[in-house]
């Protein structure tokens, strides 16, 4: 994951379609030291991702 999850501000964008999966992800539980290998940035831990990601913090 990058530092943000897309935008719904483009034509046809629906904010609920963007935020619903984010809400589901936030309900999942993982050990805080679980490594996350992101497609856009360097790897991090689950705890760091949840603190630093603008849509998850």
Keywords:
7% strand; two-stranded antiparallel ribbon; 2 helices; globular; 57 residues; mainly alpha; single chain
Question: On the 0-100 scale, what is the average pLDDT?
Answer: 83
The SSE string, one letter per element, is HEEH
Strand content: 5-15%
pLDDT below 50 for ≥5 consecutive residues: which ranges?
Answer: none
Structural class: mainly alpha
Largest sheet: 2 strands, antiparallel
Strand order of the largest sheet: 1-2
Q: How many strand units?
A: 2
What gap, in angstroms, lies between the N and C termini? 13 Å
Shape: globular
Helicity level: 25-40%
Rg calculated over all Cα atoms: 12 Å
Helix tally equals 2
Description:
- It is a single chain.
- The chain is mostly helical.
- The chain is built from 2 helices and 2 strands, in the order αββα.
- A hairpin with a 7-residue loop joins strand 1 (35-36) and strand 2 (44-45).
- It is globular and about 40 Å long.
- 4% of the residues are buried.
- The model has no long low-confidence stretch (mean pLDDT 83).
Topology:
Blueprint: H1 15-27, E1 35-36, E2 44-45, H2 46-52
Antiparallel strand pairs: 1-2
Task: Give a short synopsis of this structure.
With 57 residues, this protein is mainly alpha-helical. It contains 2 helices and 2 strands, in the order H-E-E-H.
